[in-house]
User: Fold Protein yippee-like from Podila minutissima.
Amino acid sequence: MDAKHQVYLQGDQIYTCSECHAHLARNDDIISKGFQGRHGRAYLFKTVHNIALGPKEDRVLMTGLHSVADITCTICQSVVGWIYLFAFEGSQKYKEGKYIVEKAKISKENHWIQRE
Ligand SMILES: [Zn+2]
Assistant:
């Protein structure tokens, strides 16, 4: 198993890990920017790459009880958010299998002004 193998995303705007700049998600994969994380504002994504799941736990969030798991950047091991595994409230079911990423943990990179 090669845990350091990194996926590189294609797209005009990519969200990267603010610690190590691993590609995490595409702008097109954002479902909502109106979420609240542990450190302030957070985004809900359809798909996030280069992450590993922590242990499953039940957590009471503002919108009720959910089973979640923290998601960790596989490159630098920092926790960037969590995944909703199960929502107990019917109205929150749409979040199952989706990812919360803390805005404070990511940087946005525009490909046409990428400086490397
Ligand atoms: Zn990272």
The domain at 13-113 is CATH 2.170.150.20 (Metal Binding Protein, Guanine Nucleotide Exchange Factor; Chain A). The mean pLDDT is 91.
